[in-house]
Each structure stands twice: as structure tokens, then as C-alpha cells.
């Protein structure tokens, strides 16, 4: 019964807000007293847990120690100045990839999250992406950037550096790298290996 009530509350919040971020936070007495000192139009939340669902299925969970929500004449946005972490789920609610950064900014009107500073994403196959800046497009379920990015793949074993960025699915499949840096390398897999990889990497 408790789980049903929680689920009902989450659905209600999603309908009311019409956006990704449904969050829970904790505030002590000192934080409540400090509300009057904060800038108008800026709300602060701590210990954030946010959920993204598509077609009734949960697709991602975001956690962050601090969120600043800005409401003004321009588009609403939220900032995560003290890091954030995202788990991405498949249809069976199994985590298939994860994403982390020291800073994030969510723009509600664009349905995108901008990340910077030590951005790292990795999947269950052992592939890892490193970037200084990265966008997460929630509508398309993709990552992209026009900044330098490095991706290490396990099958086949290779390390690739895109000088002008990357575009790929949020599970790090269907990768397109732009302007491959000299010195990137491929390691041809053992011909006796039976491992299969259905993803693809395109160089442009």
C-alpha cells in the first residue's frame, strides 16, 4: 500500500510540473531561517532524487547533493553546482549506463542537461567516455558535444579521441566521432573470440 501511495504521488507530481525534475529534499532549521536571505526566484533543494519516465517506464534516476532552481521571465532552469550522477535503465529496469559530472544545468524548455568538469559516462560493457563538456538530450536519449572527447571501448578494444566531439546514444552505442585525433588506436580482436558487439562507431 505504501509503495502504491508513493508511486501515485510521483505520477501526480509529474503531471503538475510537466518536467523531468521531481525532487525530495531535507532542510534543517537554519536552512529555513536562511530562506529570507536568498535571492528572489531561486529555490534550493538538497539530497535530490529525480526520475525520468518515458511511456510509463522509468528510464533514468538523477541524484545530486544540491539543486538550485531558477524561475524568472526567461525559461526555467536548474543548476547542480556540487556534482550530479545519473543511472540509465533498460526496459527490465536494469542499469545499462551511468553518467557523472561535477556541474550540471537543466533547461526545461529544451529538455536537455548541460554537463561540464570531469564528465564521465560508462556502460555495462565496460566502454567509458571522458569529456570536459557534454549535453544529454533527454528527448532523443543521446549524448553530444563539439568539444574534444575520449572514448575507450572494450569490444573491440580501442581508444578513440574526437577533436570536434561526439554523438551517441546514452548507452554509448551508435557512436559518431568528429575529426579523429592522430594517435587514436584500434586493437584488432582475437579471431577466435566469439564475442559479438552490435554497436557501431563512425568516424567523420
UniProtKB/TrEMBL annotation:
Keywords: Signal
The protein, known as: Lipopolysaccharide-assembly, LptC-related
Signal peptide start and end residues: 1-24
Amino acid at each position: 500500500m505504501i509503495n502504491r501511495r508513493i508511486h501515485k504521488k510521483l505520477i501526480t507530481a509529474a503531471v503538475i510540473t510537466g518536467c523531468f525534475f521531481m525532487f525530495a529534499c531535507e532542510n534543517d532549521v537554519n536552512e529555513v531561517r536562511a530562506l529570507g536571505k536568498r535571492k528572489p526566484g531561486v529555490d534550493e533543494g538538497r539530497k535530490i532524487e529525480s526520475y525520468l519516465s518515458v511511456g510509463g517506464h522509468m528510464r533514468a534516476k538523477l541524484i545530486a547533493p544540491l539543486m538550485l532552481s531558477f524561475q524568472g521571465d526567461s525559461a526555467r532552469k536548474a543548476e547542480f553546482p556540487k556534482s550530479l550522477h545519473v543511472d540509465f535503465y533498460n526496459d527490465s529496469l536494469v542499469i545499462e549506463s551511468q553518467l557523472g559530472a561535477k556541474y550540471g544545468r537543466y533547461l526545461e524548455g529544451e529538455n536537455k542537461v548541460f554537463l561540464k568538469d570531469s564528465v564521465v559516462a560508462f556502460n555495462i560493457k565496460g566502454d567509458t567516455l571522458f569529456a570536459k563538456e557534454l549535453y544529454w538530450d533527454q528527448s532523443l536519449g543521446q549524448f553530444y558535444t563539439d568539444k574534444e572527447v575520449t572514448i575507450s571501448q572494450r569490444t573491440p578494444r580501442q581508444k578513440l579521441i574526437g577533436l570536434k566531439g561526439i554523438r551517441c546514444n546514452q548507452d554509448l552505442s551508435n557512436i559518431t566521432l568528429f575529426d579523429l585525433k592522430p594517435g587514436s588506436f584500434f586493437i584488432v580482436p582475437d579471431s577466435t573470440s566469439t564475442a559479438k558487439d552490435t554497436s557501431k562507431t563512425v568516424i567523420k
